[in-house]
Amino acid sequence: MFRNLLTRLFNDEPHPQPLASPDAEVAIAALLVRVARSDDHYEQAERRRIDQILARRRGLTLDEAAERRAAAEMIEAEAPDTVRFTRSIKDRIALEDRLDVIASMWETAYADTTRVSDEETMIRLVAGLLGVPDRDSALVRQKVLQDLGISEG
């Protein structure tokens, strides 16, 4: 089902078409995987959190979400550099969905309740590439930390 997603993402059309909902979710999930892998410690807590996020975003069961995450892991491993990958996604997802994507990335980064600078740096990079201002990303981050009960300290 998602086999040709990379081809659709990087087909170099002058006016890229929005991705169909399942493809968009796998592409977004691949960004979440990239964030989780950015510190070279892709843990079970992060996988579970990605599954929960995917289930919540689209009303999937946890098993369906795990299948999407597994597809996303393969996509992420094959995707080009983060800049090109993120720009391709930006061109194909709605602006109003981008803040939720940023929130999902922060939530993934803090799945193990540990602040890791590699993950935070990756999210800041991706937020900028998605066209989300630093201030908005910081506000989303604060809300996620509050919702997760993690202190800024």
TrEMBL record:
Signal peptide: none annotated. Residues 26-142 form the Co-chaperone DjlA N-terminal domain. InterPro entries: DjlA_N (IPR007791), TerB-like (IPR029024). Pfam families: TerB (PF05099). This is TerB family tellurite resistance protein.
